[in-house]
Each structure stands twice: as C-alpha cells, then as structure tokens.
Design a protein that fits this description.
CATH architecture: 3-Layer(aba) Sandwich
Strand content: 15-25%
CATH class: Alpha Beta
Distance between the termini: 30 Å
Order of helices and strands: EHEHEEH
Helix content: 25-40%
CATH superfamily: Glutaredoxin
Radius of gyration: 12 Å
Number of strands: 4
Length: 93
C-alpha cells in the first residue's frame, strides 16, 4: 500500500485541480497516491479526521505517512512532487 494519501471532495474544484497534478506525478515519477473521497464516504472522512488532527481541517489534504509531511489546499506542481518524493519543500500559507 502507498504511504501517500490524498483526501478530497467530489464537488471540490480545488481537489479536482490538484488531482490532475497527482495523476501527472504518478505517471512521471512512478509513485502511487491513494485517494480517499471524504464528502460522501463516512469511513474515508473518519480516516481523514484521524490523520488530520487540526493540521488542515479541510480538503484537498495530502499526507505522506513516511515523512509525516502534509499539504493543505492547492499547491504548485513542484511542491506536490517534492512532497510525493519525500524531498524538502515549503508550503505558502
């Protein structure tokens, strides 16, 4: 199982834009990001709340279980790529 997690809402426009970047990273870098829809799936929402613990409080939310690094909301491609590869990155607030 992947250690890269993506939490999203189906109707969330920010999530849709970010998922396009996730797909690009998966294709180009050969990584797998497990996606969990949380607005219509209570089990996935529970998983989000267990992991998030007030880090973001919404979606899109990306969490790397290996590095414990996370991204809240939309981020540039290079930031998402660094997160996925376990490389250092900064996220603008």
């Amino acid at each position: 199982m992947s250690h890269l997690l993506e939490f999203f809402g189906t109707e969330c426009p920010h999530c849709v834009r970010m998922h396009t970047l996730v797909e690009q990273i998966e294709k180009e870098e050969g990584v797998k990001v497990d996606a969990f829809e949380v607005w219509h799936n209570k089990e996935n929402e529970k998983k989000l709340l267990e992991i998030d613990k007030d880090m973001c409080g919404g979606v899109p939310f990306f969490y790397n279980e290996q590095t414990k690094k996370f991204i809240c909301g939309e981020a540039p491609y290079e930031t998402l790529k660094a997160w996925a590869l376990g490389e250092p990155f900064t996220q603008e607030e």
